[in-house]
Amino acid sequence: KNTSATFQVLGQPVACECLVSGNPVQMTVTKPAQILTHTSSTVTWQSESQGGGLELNITGAMDFDSYLEFSVSVRATKDVELSDIILRVDVLNETAKMMCGFGVRLVCGW
Q1: Residue 97 three-state SS
Q2: Is the dihedral of CA 10, 13, 19, 23 positive or negative?
Q3: Which of helix, strand or coil describes residue 1?
Q4: How far apart are CA 83 and CA 6, in angstroms?
Q5: What is the average per-residue pLDDT within 22-48?
Q6: What pLDDT is recorded for position 98?
Q7: CA neighbours closer than 13 Å in the CB half-sphere of residue 58
Q8: Is the pLDDT of residue 108 over 70?
Q9: Cβ contacts of 69 within 8 Å, gap of 6 or more
């Protein structure tokens, strides 16, 4: 029998935080996430943001098994001291029982 279910993987939207001269920059979404491709196993998207003299182009892909992949392109529109870029991913423990990466040490939650 073929069944499907929906579930929530993220506790909140993925966020890319930029620090300029050590301070967080308020980013404004200039192009909301747009679905580029969608199949029964994978979805890909792209979005754009800007702020503090930076432009971000973010592309991502998520597979049916919750595998996430991101690519962030950063362009300075003026002279800035980019201190750091932090990708914030709030994954729910209930649905991410086998998470790896992002500093997580849990190997398997079976």
Answers
A1: coil
A2: negative
A3: coil
A4: 39
A5: 93
A6: 62
A7: 25
A8: no
A9: 60, 61, 62
Residue 110, pLDDT above cutoff 50: no
Query: Using CA atoms, how far apart are residues 64 and 4, in angstroms rounded to an integer?
Result: 11
Q: What is the pLDDT of residues 70-98, one digit of tens each?
A: 899 999 999 999 999 988 877 777 766 66
- C-alpha–C-alpha distance, residues 110 and 98, integer Å: 8
Side-chain half-sphere CA neighbours of 71 within 13 A: 7
Closest CA to 45 of 57, 28, 55, 27: 57
Write down the mean pLDDT value for the chain: 83
Alpha-carbon distance 13 to 4, whole Å? 23
Element (H, E) at 41: none
